[in-house]
Write a structure and sequence with these properties.
The chain contains one helix and six strands. By secondary structure, it is of the alpha+beta class.
Length: 104
């Protein structure tokens, strides 16, 4: 990564994820807190809904395949949040869509 991840980028990413899901596309995302790398992980987003505060996404986490993982996006702070789990203490992080389909 050369440039920092902006809040505007995160807002666009949340909107793009919802748009992809409406087209029955399951985007692959990268979860990161660069430059600290307190998280560096991938998930597949398979569902999402708009809420009063932003968006709530359901994702497949290969580190916890038995149940969906909830990922939230808060519109006011323009920030994604992931609850605590076995490898993450919980809190804000950045999302980058890394793959949607073999052609864009």
């Amino acid at each position: 990564m050369i440039l920092p991840i902006t809040r505007a980028h995160q807002t666009r990413t949340a909107a793009q994820l919802i748009a992809a899901l409406k087209q029955n596309i399951a985007p692959l995302i990268h979860l990161v807190n660069f430059p600290s790398l307190s998280i560096n992980h991938g998930m597949v987003v398979f569902d999402g809904v708009e809420t009063g505060r932003g968006f709530e996404f359901q994702a497949y986490d290969p580190n916890d395949p038995k149940q969906p993982t909830q990922l939230m996006f808060d519109r006011a702070s323009q920030t994604f949040f992931l609850p605590a789990n076995l490898y993450w203490v919980g809190g804000s992080l950045n999302i980058i869509e890394i793959y949607r389909r073999w052609f864009l």
